[in-house]
Amino acid sequence: MASLPFSALSLFFSLCVLLVLPTHSLTCSTSQKFTNNKHYTNCTALPALKSYLHYTYNSSNSSLSVAFIASPAKPDGWTGWGINLNGTGMAGAQVILALKSSKGAPEVKTYNIISYGDIREERLSFDVWDLSAETNATSGEFTIYASVKLPEKVESFNHIWQVGAAVNNGKPVKHEFAAENKDAKATLELTTAQKTGKSATTTTPAGGNSTGNGTTSSSNTTTNGGNSGSYRIKEMNVGFCFAVFVLLASFIVF
């Protein structure tokens, strides 16, 4: 029986290595630069809506400086990030939104979400300063900049984020209610970030995941919330490659 060239077997092995590498996931990239030249101590790739949160926590005065990055659901839409000190979801949260204005550039507004049917544009109950927003002309992403005053000695807090498709008369139109939109909430652990200075943990509040999986977490380099499927694919690829590799090797031997 004709033998298979060793070079062909080597090529196949190289392709298998690519197959078993972890599938793509969101990461906090060093390419994410800010026009205000700010530098943030921590970054987490949030587990929903392809969003990122860069932030620095100052425990001496309980202040948090953030840069929230996300793309609107459509180019003329909006993005938002907020804090819920009394709950885990939208109801009761106080948010900062970047909305596409008539002039094209995003403008920043603050909203108090009393309930899902009662959303008020007003000042937040905690101090907020250095509010601004910008658009990345290439990616279409909005970046919201803000500094907020947190309760003293806070170790973690619940935060939410969201994206919408449209703005009507200067007001955000309701976002979609797909699973990913419903999953856009988590607990940010400040003590973890403060100890390491490099990484942070974002944990989905118990019961907050629509899939019923409990908690998920993400670091400054990976998002683990959706990796279970990736690992299953990886295991299938390993098994497939091993079986075919043995078969092809037998051609060389014989």
Structure, described:
This protein has four helices and 14 strands. Helix 1 (6-20) packs antiparallel against helix 4. Residues 8-25, 195-201, 206-238 and 244-248 have low confidence and may be disordered. Helix content is 21%, strand content 33%. The chain has helices spanning 6-20, 179-182, 190-196, 227-253, and strands spanning 42-45, 52-58, 63-70, 78-84, 94-100, 106-115, 118-121, 128-135, 142-149, 156-164, 167-168, 171-172, 185-189, 201-203. The chain folds into two domains: 42-223, Immunoglobulin-like; 230-254. The protein has 254 residues and is α+β, with helices and mostly antiparallel strands. The longest helix has 27 residues, at 227-253. The protein has a seven-stranded antiparallel beta sheet with strand order 7-6-5-4-10-13-14. A five-stranded antiparallel beta sheet has the order 1-2-3-9-8.
Please describe the topology of this protein:
Blueprint: H1 6-20, E1 42-45, E2 52-58, E3 63-70, E4 78-84, E5 94-100, E6 106-115, E7 118-121, E8 128-135, E9 142-149, E10 156-164, E11 167-168, E12 171-172, H2 179-182, E13 185-189, H3 190-196, E14 201-203, H4 227-253
Task: Give me the strand/helix succession.
Answer: HEEEEEEEEEEEEHEHEH
Strand content: 25-35%
Q: How many domains make up the 3D coordinates? A: 2
Write down the CATH topology of the largest domain: Immunoglobulin-like
Look at the structure and give the CATH class of the largest domain: Mainly Beta
How many beta-strand runs? 14
The order of strands across the largest sheet is: 7-6-5-4-10-13-14
Structural class: alpha+beta
Mean pLDDT: 74
- Provide the helix percentage: 10-25%
Helix count from the secondary structure assignment? 4
Q: Under the CATH scheme, which architecture of the largest domain would be assigned?
A: Sandwich
Q: Looking at the structure, what is the overall shape?
A: globular
Q: What is the radius of gyration computed over CA atoms, rounded to a whole number of angstroms?
A: 22 Å
